[in-house]
Amino acid sequence: MLKVDNLICGYANKPILKGVSFKLDYGEFAGVIGPNGSGKTTLLRAMTKVIKPYSGTVSFNGRLISQMSFKEAARNIAVVGQDGNPHFDISVEEFVGLGRIPHQSKFGFLETKEDEKIILQSMEMAGVLEFKNRLLKNLSGGERQLAVIAKALAQQPKLLLLDEPTVYLDISHQVYILDLIRRLNTEKKVAVLIVLHELNLASEYCQRLILLNNGLVEKIGTPREVLDYRVIEQVYKTTVVVQENPISRKPYVFIVPEKEKHKRPNS
Fold first, then answer.
1. Whole-model pTM over 0.85
2. Nearest C-alpha neighbor of 190 from the set 24, 59, 11
3. Pick the CATH number of 2-263 from 2.30.40.10, 3.40.50.150, 3.40.50.300, 3.90.950.20
4. 145-169: per-residue pLDDT in tens?
């Protein structure tokens, strides 16, 4: 579905990504991880035409995204960014309805019955239907993030790109949002590429991880393959212990404070 080929891009003629390549399959749930400054957000910005790559390509279903109009791209790809927590003076229902704009005809300014149905279904799935008439600016941070995801759902995308959608949220909202995204992936067959700062959330929810380091792909694989303590210590420059979550059997990363390093097992 998605192919990133030797992508080089950055800001003010300073490369941040220095030749990133990977593929995303149909129906896949993949995560992008890496230290601060490794290029995670820059990658999503380049993939969505927010910034123009110096070289390399990003293609969706065999077509270069750079050659797609914003409206065409929005019919297929929905984006939830780090700044996706708006304080607009409109209702939740009106905000979610903005997700239908890419599907409206050139002269179709009014929502159709089908649009209304999709908007209601999107709000219901995201868990914001009960406050559809409340102003977006009056919601909590977690509720607003759910409204942003509902708007993305209303686009009916084939691919969902998310840049740290759980940042600044408490653990209950983190789990709720990631459970919701996994449901979209499994029930609606929406492919997901998500940037996550928290390694253990990435381990629990992602089928495959793309580890960035200094603008390059350090490793791609399953959480068990990527979250090896030797790989994490090399990339993050800190001491960790990686063990198995007793419930999910996924790898779990424990940090080791400086004064406790001598206690870490050798394995």
1. yes
2. 24
3. 3.40.50.300
4. 899 999 999 999 999 999 999 888 8
